[in-house]
Amino acid sequence: MTKKKSIFTQEVIVGIVLIALYFLFRTISADFGKYTTFLSMMDISYYYVFMAIGVAFPLITGGVDLSIGTGMICYALAGGFMIRQYGWPTGLAILLSILFGVAIGALNGVLISLMGLPPFLATLCTCMITRGLGSVVTGSFAVPWPTAKQPNGWFHSIFKITMADKTKLPLGLLWVILLMLVMQFVLAHTKFGRYTIAIGSNKEAAMLSGINVKFYHVMVYVVSGLFAGLASIAYGAVIKTVQPGTGAGMELDAIGGAIVGGVSASGGYGTIYGTVIGAYVIIFLKQGLPYIGFNANMQQIITGLVLIGAVAIDIVKRKVIK
Amino acid sequence: MGEVILTMKGIDKSFPGVHALDHVDLELRRGEVHALMGENGAGKSTLMKVLTGIYTKDSGTITFEGKEVEFHNTHEAQEAGIVIVHQELNMVGDLTVAQNIFIGREFKKGIMIDDKKMIAESKKLFDELHIDIDPRAKMSDLTVGKQQMCEIAKAISHKAKVIIFDEPSAALTEKEIEDLFVIIRDLRAQNLGIIYISHRMDEIKVITDRVTVMRDGGYVGTLITAECTKEDIINMMVGRVIYEDPKTHSMVPDDAPVVLKVEHLNAGKMVQDVSFELRKGEILGFSGLMGAGRTETARALFGADPKTGGDIYINGEKVTINSPEDAVKHGIGYLSEDRKRYGIVVQKTITENSTMATMEKFTSGLFINKAEEKKVAEQYIKELATKTPSADELVVNLSGGNQQKVVIAKWLVRNCDILIFDEPTRGIDVGAKNEIYKLMNRLASEGKSIIMISSEMTEILRMSDRIVVMCEGKKTGEIRIEEATQEAIMNKATRDIQ
Amino acid sequence: MEKIKQNPIVKKLGFNRIILFCILILLYVAFSVAIPGFAGMARIMSILNYVYFLGFLALGVTFVIATGGIDFSIGPVMFCCALMAGYSLNTYKVPVIAAILMSIVIGFCFGVFNGWLVSFVGVPPFIVSMASMNIAKGLGSVFTKTQSVSWPQVNDPDGRGWFRSLVKVGDVPTGLIIFAVFVVILFIVMNNTKPGRYILSLGSNKEAVRLSGVNVRKWQMLAYVICGTLVGIAAIFFVSAYTTVQPGLGDTYNNEAIASCVMGGTSMAGGLASIGGTVIGVFVISLLQEGIMALRMTKEVQMIITGLIVIVFVYADVSARRRKN
C-alpha cells in the first residue's frame, strides 16, 4: 500500500544543485572562492534565511506573507531609531524590533484567520503599511545601527566574531543551523507544526477535529513576524545603515527560497531544512552572478523564473501522480 | 435498549430567511441504533450540528446523561462523549493515518508529539475493529472506503457514548457496508447510543431499532423499525403517498437509429472498457452503487476528464471529444450531479445561465444581443414552468428544482440531441421531481436521447427504456425494461463484489 | 434606506457607487476647505495626471480580479514598460510612436506570460504576480543598466515631446477624453460582450462554465492579456505626466490600483466587477494622493492609508458574503 519513497526528494536535489552552483561559480571566478567572499555572502544570507524559515509556515498553510521584507526594514528602523534618538540600550532595542515583528505578524494573523481576508491581500496591505510606518517613525531619514567598534555595538558579534589571530568567523551560520533544527523540530514534532500542516492540507477537517484552528492560524503568522523581527537584527548588524522605503522585493527572495526548497505553494507540505537550502540557492545566485560577469539584476529575473519553474514542477508532479 | 442517554426537546433554529429547525424532538437510548430520516433539506444535518456544537440553538433543551448540556464546539461535544462520523470525509490528506486519528488530542512527551504511541494505539484500534490498515500510511494514499474506516476508528477512539453516523454508506462497497454493520452491532452491544442517518431504506430496516422522521425542519414522529413498513416511513417523509409505477415497456421503436455509440471507453480505475449504445428517443438508465463509475463514465464521455482510450460515434460517425467544448459541439449536454459546483453560476442571472452554452447564437461580432437573450430565457422559463419573479433573478435565489430547470434550459437553448442527466432529482423535493420526470419523458418523445444516471432504484425503473448496470468501473450488465426488476439490477450491481 | 436601495435608478447605478461618489465630492470639499488654495484648476489637472495612469492600471486589474485572480505585478510592469521603451527612445533613437508601441507590446507580453501561467499551467496567481514583479524589476534594471530614464519634454527642439499632448494640449485635458473613451469601451467589453460575460462567469464558477462547453482557459488568459495591455498604456500616461522613471520601483501603485477596484465594488472572490466603480475609486485615490501631498505629508502616509482602505473594503465584502451564506 505505502509507496516506496525515492531518496531524491526535492530537498536532496536542491542540495545537490546548491553544491554544484558553488563549485560552478568557483571554477569560473577565482574571486568567488576567496574566504572574504564567503564571509560577505554569509553576512547577507542571515536575514534572508531567517525570513525564509519564518515564511515557510504561512506557505505550508497554503497562505503567504508578503509583509516580511518591508516589515524587516521597519523593525530595524524602529530599533535603530530608539538607540540613536533616545539612547536605548541595544538589548532593549533588539527586543523592540522582535516584538514589533511579532505584533505585525499577529495583525496579519487576525486579518487572515479571524477576519477572513485572502492572505496575499492582507499581507500586501501590511507590506505597504509597514513600509509607510518605517518612514513616518523616522521622518524618512536613514537610521544607522551602532557599528561593531562603538560601545553598544556588541550585537555584531552575534553574527560574526573576530578571533585573536584576526580571522573572522561567520558565527551567524551557527544560528542559522540552530534555528533550522529547532523549527524543523517544531514543524515535525509539535502540535503547532502538525496543525500548521493540517491547516494547509484540509482546514475544515482540522476544525472539525476540535482543533482551535483560528488560534493556530494566527500563530503561524506570528511565527513569520517573529522571524522577520529576528531578520531585522541580522540586517542591522550586517547592513548597518537602514534606509526607509526599502525592503520591497526581499520577501520574494525569501519566499522563492522556501518554494525552491520544496515547500508546496498550495500548502500541506514543506520542510525547514529544504527551505534553508533553497534560500541559499537564491543567495548564491544573487551574490554569485556578478562574479561570473552577469548584471546583478539578472538575479531578479532568474529568481522569478526559478520560482515559477519550481511551482510548475510541483503542479506537474501532482498531476502525474494522479 | 437501555435507559435514555440523550434527549433533544423543542430544538429551534433559524437562519436569515429560513426556519431550519422547528421544535424538533429526538430521544436516544443506550444500546440503540436510531435512524434519523428525512428528505434532503429536512433538517437532519442541522439538528446534528446543533447537537455537536457547530450551531447554537435558538431555543430548546439538550439533556445528556441526565444533565442539561450545551456544547460550543465539536471539541466540547467530543470531550463529553458525542462524536460524529461525517458524510464528507474529514481527513487531512497530508498527514498519516495515526496522525489523523489522534489529531487534536495528540499524545505528548514533553513538548514533543509521541508518534510511536499514536501508531501503537491506532494498531490496537484497528485490531479491535478487524480492519487492516497501516497507521503509518499517508491518508491521501488510501481508498475512500478505507478512509471512512479510519474515520470510524477515530470516532470510536474518543471513548464515545454517542456516535452519529452521517450517511456512512454512501461511499462504501457492499462488502465494506457489511463490515460497517458488524462494527455498529458491536458498538450497540457495548451499550452505546448510535444515531444513523441514511437514505437507504433497506439499511434502515436491517440495522436500526427505531426511526425518527423529519420533514421541512419539523419533527414528524418516531417509530419502532421492526413494527413499521418502508411505506410508512416514506409517507412520513413526504407527507403524502407517492405512486411510482415502474415503466412496463420501452417507448423506443425497434427501428430507432443509434445516435451515440461508445466503444471500449477507458479512463482510470473508475472507467474500464465501457461500451454501450444510445438510440434516438431513448432514456438509458445507468444504475449501480455509489462509486460504480457511472459519473466518471459520463464525465469521460463528455470530455470533462481525460480518457485513456475508447471510441465514440455520433450518428455513426467517429468523433474526437477531448474537452467539454468538443462534446457540446457534437450536441451533447451534461447535467451534473452537483449542480451548485458544476451546473450553474449561482451569482449570475437566469438569463446568463440559460445562454451560457450558446453564446454565439446571441452575439453579433463580440456584442451580446441582450434583448434576444432575455426573450429566449423567458420562453424557457414559461416552457419549463420555472418559478421565478423574472429572468433577471439571480440563480442563487431559486430552489433546487428550479435551479435544475435552469440547467436543463441551458442545454435546450443549445438544442442538444444527447443529454446526460446525472442524478437529476438529487436534492429536489417530490413535487418538482415529478415535473423533472415529465419533462424528461417529453424530451424523449420529441426525439432527444437521454442518459440518466440515478442511484434511486424507483427512479431507474420508472424512467428507463433500457438499463446499463455498472460495478467498480465496469459495465456488468444491460437489462431491457421489460425484464428489469430490483433484484436483477442489484444482482448485477454487486456482481463483482460477491 | 431600503426604499432608496430598491429605487430602479439607484439599483442601476449601484447604491455603493453612489455613496462612493458622494464620498469623493465630500473629500474634495473637505480638502478645499482645509487647505488654502486647494480648489482650482491647477490641482485638478494635477489630480487628473494621477488619474490617467492609475486608471489604466486599475481598469486592467479589474478584469483580472473579475476572474477571481490577482495581479500585483502591474506597478513594476508599468515601470518596466516605461523604462525599456524610454531607454530605446533615448539611446537607440527609435521614433516616439515606436516607443509607445513598444511599451504597449511589453505590457501585452507580460499579460500573455502571466495569463498563460495562471490559466494553462495552473500556477497560483499570487505566485505568478510575485515572479512577474521580480522579472519586471530585473528586466527594467538590466535593460537600462540601472539608470533612470527621462522621456522627452514638450518643448524638445526635435519635436519628440509630441506624445505629451495625449495628456494635455494647452489647458485642455485631452487625457481625460482618451481615458473616458477607454472607460466606455471597457465598460461595454465587460458587460455587453462575450469575453466579458465569460470572464465574469468563470470568476464566479469556473467549472460550471467549462462544463457548458466553454474554453475557460482561453478567456481566463484573455483577462490577464487585457490587463497587461492596459498596463502598457498606463506607462505612456505615466511618463507623459511625470517624465522620469527609475528602475526597481513601481510596487506602490499595485495597492492603489487594487484599492480602487475594491472600493468600487469589485469583489476579490471574483465574478463581480464594476468598471464605473473602479473609475470612481481611481478618482478617490488620486484625490487622496493630491490632498496628502498638499498637506505636506509623504507618500508613505498614503501607503498606510491605501493599505487600510483595502483591508476595510475587502473585509466588508468578505463579511457580506459570509452573512449571505
Q: Major sheet of chain C, described briefly?
A: 2 strands, antiparallel
For the secondary structure, the number of strands of chain C is: 2
- Share of helical residues of chain B: 25-40%
Rounded radius of gyration of chain B (Å): 25 Å
Q: H/E series of chain C, N to C?
A: HHHHHHHEHHHEHHH
**Which consecutive residue ranges of chain B, at least 5 long each, have pLDDT under 50?**
none
Widest sheet: strand ordering of chain C: 1-2
Q: With helices defined by DSSP (H or I, 4 residues minimum), what is the helix count of chain C?
A: 13
Q: Please give the most extensive interface between any two protein chains, plus how many residues each contributes.
A: A-C, 48 and 48 residues
Estimated structural class of chain C: mainly alpha
Overview of this protein structure:
Chain A has 322 residues and is mostly helical. In chain A, 71% of the residues lie in helices and 2% in strands. In chain A, the strands form two sheets. Chain A has a two-stranded antiparallel ribbon. In chain A, strands 2-3 form a two-stranded antiparallel sheet. In chain A, strand 2 (161-162) and strand 3 (168-169) form a beta hairpin. In chain B, helix 4 (115-129) packs across helix 5 (144-157) and helix 13 (370-383) packs across helix 14. In chain B, a hairpin with a 2-residue loop joins strand 11 and strand 12. By secondary structure, chain B is of the alpha/beta class. Chain B is globular. Chain C has a two-stranded antiparallel ribbon with strand order 1-2.
Give keywords.
heterotrimer, A: 322 residues, mainly alpha, two-stranded antiparallel ribbon, two-stranded antiparallel sheet, 4 strands, 71% helix, globular, B: 498 residues, alpha/beta, 6-stranded mixed beta sheet
